[in-house]
Amino acid sequence: MRYIIDRIEGTAAVCQKEDGTMVHIDIAGLPADAAEGDVLTDDSGGLMVDKEETDKRRQRIRAKLDKLFK
C-alpha cells in the first residue's frame, strides 16, 4: 500500500491512499524524515519514505507546472 502525505494537521498526517481515499495517520507512526508530499510505502516493518517515488512524483508535478506557466 502507498500513501502520499497531503498535509500535517496537529498530531495527524492526512494522507491519500492509492485508491484516492483520505486517511489520518498519527505522526508518531511516520518516519522521522517524512514531510508533506512524500510517498510512503507500508511494508512489514512499518511505514517508510519511498524517496525514489517521491522524487519522480515531484519531477512530474514540476514539469506540469512549468508547462502550465510558460
Question: What does this protein structure show overall?
Answer:
With 70 residues, this protein is α+β, with helices and mostly antiparallel strands. It has a single domain (2-68), classed as OB fold (Dihydrolipoamide Acetyltransferase, E2P), CATH 2.40.50. It contains 1 helix and 5 strands, in the order βββββα. Strands 3-2-1-4-5 form a 5-stranded antiparallel β-sheet. Strand 1 (2-9) and strand 2 form a beta hairpin. The longest helix has 18 residues, at 51-68. It is globular, with a radius of gyration of 13 Å. The model has no long low-confidence stretch (mean pLDDT 95).
CATH C-level:
Mainly Beta
- The rounded Rg comes to 13 Å
The geometry reads as globular
CATH topology description: OB fold (Dihydrolipoamide Acetyltransferase, E2P)
Instruction: Quickly give the CATH architecture.
Output: Beta Barrel
Low-confidence stretches: none
Helix content: 25-40%
Major sheet description: 5 strands, antiparallel
Give the terminus-to-terminus CA distance. Answer: 36 Å
Estimate the mean pLDDT confidence. 95
Number of strands: 5
Structural class: alpha+beta
In total, the number of domains comes to: 1
Task: Estimate the strand proportion.
Answer: 35-45%
Order of helices and strands: EEEEEH
| Oligomeric category | single chain
